[in-house]
Structures are given as structure tokens and as C-alpha cells.
Write a structure and sequence with these properties.
229 residues; alpha+beta; Alpha-Beta Plaits; Aminopeptidase; 2 domains; eight-stranded mixed sheet; three-stranded antiparallel sheet; 11 strands; 29% helix; transferase; EC 2.3.2.6; Leu/Phe-tRNA_Trfase_C; acyltransferase
């Protein structure tokens, strides 16, 4: 069971006060575990500004990218790739985060503070990695935060073709149970690539209406312990 940290000293305010046209809804606070969990439970997530010394930025997208579990698109070639990989959960969390934070990647945003914060969330049982392994090597994966029925995806990477998508298939298949309709895989913002995999957009209001039901769902057995899926 994840360990509930001390509550945050910060408040993110009411969603009704968020700017209806701006994804950025708060600036400041900290990255303590209690603050991060409070943010996810309110529909927010953090991202650095990119300028050293700036306060943390907190986003609640006007158009939220989510992946309904019954809409994942798995092509024939991707299904073949899935057969060539082994899915593991939480066996290489730190390595997954570091691969996602590789400074050579375009639009890298995972800095030392973010890295440390999510490693701490992992230690407490809230942050998880889903990993694609091939021939004993980690070749792709993703990480995010599981709170109730919410899986808030943070980043993914691949070292071989399709490996990050294989991890995504492993995640979705691991979340499919009798409460699958109430679960959310949150990808923050949709992109053409993610849309091709089945990601859709919800309005901020629709996402926030759905969130309490999702949070009330028991966390999937996929994350009960470090496992091979």
C-alpha cells in the first residue's frame, strides 16, 4: 500500500477560478509528496519553466489528453512487437526516469528537482514505471503516478522502435479490470502521435467532473508490487 505523506502546506484554489483559456493555473508551491498528490487529486501537474531559479509551474490543460482503455489502437506490427518484449513493472524506475530525462532529447523538461521528487513518490508507493525489456535489456518504458483509478503519465522513452508503445500497451492491459470504465490514463496533452494510439481530448470541466469517480477506484493490482506482467 502506498504511504500517505503529510498534507501540503499549499492550496491550489478552486477550479472555478482557473483562467478558462490558459493551461497554466498556478505558480509556486513545492514538490513535496503531499503537494504533488494534492495537485493530482485536483487535476493539476507540475512542470518547470525551464529557467533556473524560477518557481514551479502547475498546469490543468483546457483540453486534456486521456486514453480510454477501450480505445487503445494496437496495429498488427505493434502487436508483433509486443510479443518480442517482456513487460515489467517497477523493476527499473530510476533508470526509466533518467532515460526520459536524457538532455539530448528534444523539449527535455525533467530537471534534478523533478527527478528527486518522483523518486521520492516512488519510494512511497505512488509513482510507477512500466518497462519494455528485450534480451535482458531495458529498451523502453514510461512512468507516472497512480492515485486510485488515475494513472497520470509523465513521460516515456524508447531505445528501439515501438518499445515505448509496447510499454503503453502493457500499462493499458494491466489496467483492464471490472472497473476499467472508471479508470483514466492521463497523458496531459494530446499530440497527433498519441491521437493515433487512441488518445482523445476532454474539456477541463469534463475531466474534473470525472476525476472524483476515478480517484475513488481502487488502484490497479498492476501496481500492488514489483511484478513481471
Amino acid at each position: 500500500m502506498p504511504v500517505e505523506p503529510p498534507p501540503s502546506a499549499w492550496s491550489f484554489g478552486e477550479a472555478a477560478a482557473f483562467d478558462a483559456d490558459d493551461d497554466l493555473v498556478a505558480i509556486g508551491a513545492d514538490l513535496e509528496p503531499g503537494t504533488l498528490l494534492a495537485a493530482y487529486r485536483r487535476g493539476l501537474f507540475p512542470m518547470p519553466s525551464g529557467t533556473p531559479g524560477d518557481p514551479m509551474y502547475w498546469f490543468s490543460p483546457v483540453r486534456r489528453g486521456v486514453l480510454p482503455l477501450d480505445r487503445l489502437v494496437v496495429s498488427r506490427s505493434l502487436r508483433r512487437s509486443c510479443r518480442d518484449h517482456e513487460i515489467r513493472v517497477d523493476t527499473a524506475f530510476e533508470e526509466v526516469v533518467d532515460a526520459c530525462a536524457d538532455p539530448s532529447r528534444d523539449s527535455g523538461w525533467i530537471d534534478a528537482d523533478i527527478r528527486a521528487a518522483y523518486l521520492r513518490l516512488h519510494e512511497l508507493g505512488w509513482a510507477h514505471s512500466v518497462e519494455a525489456w528485450r534480451d535482458g535489456r531495458l529498451v523502453g518504458g514510461l512512468y507516472g503516478v497512480a492515485v486510485g483509478g488515475l494513472f497520470a503519465g509523465e513521460s516515456m522513452f524508447h531505445r528501439e522502435r515501438d518499445a515505448s508503445k509496447v510499454a503503453l500497451v502493457g500499462l493499458v492491459e494491466g489496467l483492464r479490470d471490472d472497473r476499467a470504465a472508471d479508470r483514466i490514463v492521463d497523458v496531459q496533452w494530446s499530440t497527433p502521435h498519441l491521437a493515433s494510439l487512441g488518445v482523445v481530448e476532454l474539456s477541463r470541466a469534463a475531466y474534473l467532473r470525472r476525476l472524483p469517480v476515478t480517484l475513488a477506484v481502487k488502484t490497479a493490482a498492476l501496481f500492488d508490487a514489483s511484478t513481471d506482467a
